[in-house]
Input
Amino acid sequence: MSVANVSDCRPKTVRLRYFALLREQAKRDNEVRATTARTCAELYFELQKEYSFPLPLSQMKVAVNEEFVGPERPLQAGDEVVFIPPVAGG
Amino acid sequence: MSVANVSDCRPKTVRLRYFALLREQAKRDNEVRATTARTCAELYFELQKEYSFPLPLSQMKVAVNEEFVGPERPLQAGDEVVFIPPVAGG
Amino acid sequence: MKICQFSLSAEPLSPVLLSRALSDTAAGAFVSFEGWVRNHNRGKTVVALEYEVYQALALKEGERIVAEAIAKFGLIGAGACHRYGLLGLGEIAVWVGATAPHRCQAFAGAAYIIDEIKHRLPIWKKEYYATGSTAWVHCSEHSH
Amino acid sequence: MKICQFSLSAEPLSPVLLSRALSDTAAGAFVSFEGWVRNHNRGKTVVALEYEVYQALALKEGERIVAEAIAKFGLIGAGACHRYGLLGLGEIAVWVGATAPHRCQAFAGAAYIIDEIKHRLPIWKKEYYATGSTAWVHCSEHSH
Output
């Protein structure tokens, strides 16, 4: 295991915000969470187990620190992560 | 010459209204006119000579009694005839 | 009942009042078009416009155009109003509004109405230029 | 300088004020789109809507969408405003406006902005039905 991976596995603290369906399902609109997830995708799987989110990751978009990112983006301590269920403007 | 054609050749009185370019060229916005023209097209040629209308009939639309008609429509006494130069709504 | 309105106005147009007439809680989409008097056309500086209209025929043709759009695109309602007389820069020369269940219909309907108005309505436009000259322009020579 | 505006509002939208911001005497054409809260969707009677928005990201994404439309279609200006919170029937959920020298550009620009808003803006819609039930709907399930 490389040094980088060891570093990735340490728990880090991230902030989550929940909207719409996810907010209702998680029964909260934000949380500060210590996680060993290395990527946004891994974090979603962790949350999905805990809150029984019905939507697969493939239907979500992901934003970190107020910008859209891919699901494989590595998580860093202090990140604000938002999983975005299907939207409906207009 | 048939009876109908004899009838067509008698002078009949029509009312004309002029708009835009034709109004400026004719120096009037309407007139009552006795004419032997049998059709709207013939009437236009008559007017074109008198007022030097610059536009050929092919660029005009014709309205009789507040409805669009073809240029070959027969003229009848009492018709209100309007030759419509190219329009520009909007 | 479908709302289908066409009018001519010597006074400045009010988009608020015109669109209010199309209010309908069955409509999800509203599209409006406004033609504004702009300060240039074909390379010339325009200072004002004058519209001259053959009212009786314009009202009939305008209503036909709006009714065609409603039928063609399944609109819930549509309306248009054309200004005439002398207009200054920035004033609204024509207003078109269309409502529909879905936005594609409303966009297509409004575009149809303004296209047909430009080509079919017996109304004429005189441009007043900064040079002092004027010209009758028509829709094959320019477009908004 | 091109006008490029996107905003979110908890209060009812005013099309007059929003369009006034786009006034420009170089513009010949103005097209606006309004999304209205309608009384039905997918066969159900709707009595109200609620929009929940991720404000910080929605403002950035909304501004990007409007800027893209200006660049793509050569608009003179464009703007959009999305309402959030609880809305009653007939209220304006979203307003889009685009100005251009010619009408094709203004129509295409306004249509682009609303299409992108519906698919990209991080905003969610909950429908309240006459039956007392509610549902989060998204843009693959319905359209205006």
